[in-house]
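User: tokens in, sequence out, please.
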């Protein structure tokens, strides 16, 4: 739900959205200062799986994995 003054972001299951998510995960992993190694490996695995699925044309599955990786990183307080 959008609040007053916040931009509405519309996403689609597209190859471009997959690339955007992949880039966000990469940036978040790179910026991560304090995160257990096992967590970053889990996130990296989800990222790689998601990118591979997107490249193979399985956009929804790929986007799901990329979103999970991003959520995992953000939840763990990646700075």
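Assistant: Sequence out:
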């Amino acid at each position: 739900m959008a609040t007053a003054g916040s931009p509405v972001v519309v996403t689609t299951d597209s190859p471009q959205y997959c690339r955007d998510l992949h880039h966000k995960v990469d940036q978040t992993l790179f910026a991560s200062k304090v995160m257990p190694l096992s967590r970053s490996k889990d996130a990296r695995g989800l990222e790689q799986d998601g990118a591979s699925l997107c490249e193979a044309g399985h956009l929804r599955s790929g986007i799901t994995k990329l979103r999970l990786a991003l959520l995992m990183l953000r939840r763990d307080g990646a700075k």
